[in-house]
């Protein structure tokens, strides 16, 4: 594969002015086990973030509930003052319980507090993009979003955030949100083996809205499949590179944010941008749809 520069492949959500290189970085893996507490190796976490920027990544996905607080503090330590053009996208709507649980926290006051927590821990005056992480741990539960979105719009009016996105939502929730405000991105679970959002991706592409799959490599249990291994071997790539290349080829509005705590994996993931999947590979990978 040739050397790949993320800046050679970009997407700008309609009316946002944001220019995302399509290969970004998801920072959740930088906290400790179960996304709780400090990482085993803080120096490595800092190194991953600095290397991400050197490799041309300009989109970092995070949340103040990773750690909690710790992931954002590591981002600040590694990268502040931030390079021009870097978009840090955060998400609010949950907090962590003392038992490491994930608790919905989407009252207007809780959302305001979360925005201020993100601003303080990231060292920013304004957040580039804030995703409202809707309720539902196993997937969207269809909750009404009008009240929390009204709170986000108010925070946007106050100049604390520039753009609003959604996470963990179904098509009806996206439509409900779009009747209230402009949505620049949607972040839902989607990968080679989990393709429930195929119709949504196409709808959002037509509207110029970014679709950002979380768990692009399968999440806490990365994808494992003989078919994936065989496709990767034939293309002289790794299985994770094939998984990312497939997402990048899926639609032009797909932005990938693979998470890793390893500089070697980060380099491998960025290099996936140079991989093109041929018809034979795409046909073989169809057998993984909603199967693993
Ligand atoms: N909105 C939401 O509700 C939500 C939910 C989950 C995640 N997210 C966001 O989505 C981002 C991505 O999700 P994720 O990090 O959970 O899952 P992921 O990107 O699908 O997979 C991460 C896992 O893959 C491994 N990995 C990464 N690159 C690899 C490579 N080249 N070769 C082998 N293994 C590799 C990582 O281990 P190593 O550390 O060893 O590389 C880690 O175990 C998160 O960082 C977070 O920002 C959002």
UniProtKB/TrEMBL annotation:
Keywords: Oxidoreductase. Transmembrane segments: none annotated. Residues 22-288 form the NADP-dependent oxidoreductase domain. InterPro entries: AKR, Aldo-Keto_reductase, NAD(P)_OxRdtase_dom_sf, NADP_OxRdtase_dom. CDD domains: AKR_AKR13B1. GO terms for molecular function: oxidoreductase activity. GO terms for cellular component: cytoplasm. This is Putative oxidoreductase. It comes from Janthinobacterium psychrotolerans. The lineage of its organism: Bacteria, Pseudomonadati, Pseudomonadota, Betaproteobacteria, Burkholderiales.
């Amino acid at each position: 594969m040739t050397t790949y520069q993320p800046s050679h492949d970009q997407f700008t959500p309609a009316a946002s002015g944001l220019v995302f290189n399509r290969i970004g970085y998801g920072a959740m893996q930088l906290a400790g086990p179960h996304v709780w507490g400090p990482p085993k190796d803080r120096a490595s976490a800092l190194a991953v973030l600095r290397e991400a920027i050197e490799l041309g990544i300009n989109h970092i996905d995070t949340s103040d509930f990773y750690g909690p607080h710790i992931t954002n503090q590591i981002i600040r330590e590694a990268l502040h003052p931030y390079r021009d053009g870097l978009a840090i996208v955060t998400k609010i709507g949950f907090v962590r319980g003392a038992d490491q649980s994930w608790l919905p926290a989407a009252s207007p006051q809780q959302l305001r507090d979360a925005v201020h927590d993100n601003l303080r821990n990231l060292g920013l005056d304004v957040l580039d993009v804030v995703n409202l992480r809707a309720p539902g741990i196993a997937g969207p539960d269809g909750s009404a979003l009008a009240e929390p979105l009204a709170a986000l719009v108010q925070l946007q009016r106050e100049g604390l955030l520039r753009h609003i996105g959604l996470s963990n939502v179904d098509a009806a929730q996206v439509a409900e949100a779009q009747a209230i405000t402009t949505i620049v991105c949607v972040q839902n679970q989607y990968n080679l083996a989990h393709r429930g959002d195929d119709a949504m991706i196409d709808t959002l592409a037509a509207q110029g809205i970014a679709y950002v799959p979380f768990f692009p490599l399968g999440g806490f249990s990365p994808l494992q499949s003989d078919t994936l291994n065989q496709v990767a071997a034939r293309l002289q790539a790794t299985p994770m590179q094939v998984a990312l290349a497939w997402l990048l080829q899926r639609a032009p509005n797909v932005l990938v944010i693979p998470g890793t705590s390893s500089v070697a994996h980060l380099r491998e993931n960025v290099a996936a941008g140079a991989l093109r999947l041929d018809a034979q590979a795409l046909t073989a990978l169809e057998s993984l749809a909603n199967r693993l």
